[in-house]
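FORM 7B: Structural annotation worksheet

SECTION A. Query
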Amino acid sequence: MKIWAHRGCSQRYPENTLLAFEKAITIQNLTGIELDIQLTRDNELVVVHDERVDRTTEGIGFVRDYTLPQLKKLHIYADNNPTQSIPTMDEVFDLLEIRLKSGLKLNIELKNSVYPYDGMEEKIVRMVHKRGLQKAVIYSTFYAKSLEKIKMLDSDAQIGILDRKVSDCMYKMKGGCGAVALHPFWREIDLTAEQLEGYTVRAWMSGHLYPEKPTGGRLDFTQLEAQGITDIILNEPEAYLT
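SECTION B. Predicted structure
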């Protein structure tokens, strides 16, 4: 089973922060890191999951209504660790670039299925190419049209299609969005292992995010592999790899 850090090490540290990504890159044999991007009002790429800032900061409102300087004034508390802020995609690339060029993968989820941020595909593809990270990056989103656009911008882009059910991922893939991997919710594998044979199936998890305490439990990967899952994107990769 290939293991990915979901929003970084997001069980023990605040999700989608430089701190969570710093902890992830110290884990040996980690396949990759997953994160989410959105656009600010002044057209800057930032790394944040929710469309609103309410859950993870003391702010209120939509990411798209903040300028980058305004977002940077919001705090993400991290217990005894230094307080974090919403990072820019450039800041994350600065942190991860060396590791990405030496084998680590990065799954960039475009959070554009609720609000279709105009120009986000062009900005992230241009940024990836400028740093020479094409082979390290996988693009994903629930919005198949966005993946079609990325494939038009970069015919060699690695694409994963998101949905809850793996059958819905398959349907979107066969619709021509350019995806080569299926990214379903791990509890929604509604096709047989035989039907999934030959596909990369990167299943994602949710729940038990910081500051919730670790459960102390571990998944039985044997059962997941028997369902056809090849990769798991989870919040506490360090529990399996360190």
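SECTION C. Observations
The two ends are 15 Å apart (CA to CA). Strands lie at 2-6, 32-39, 45-47, 105-110, 137-141, 158-162, 181-183, 200-204, 231-234.

SECTION D. Sign-off
Analyst initials: ____
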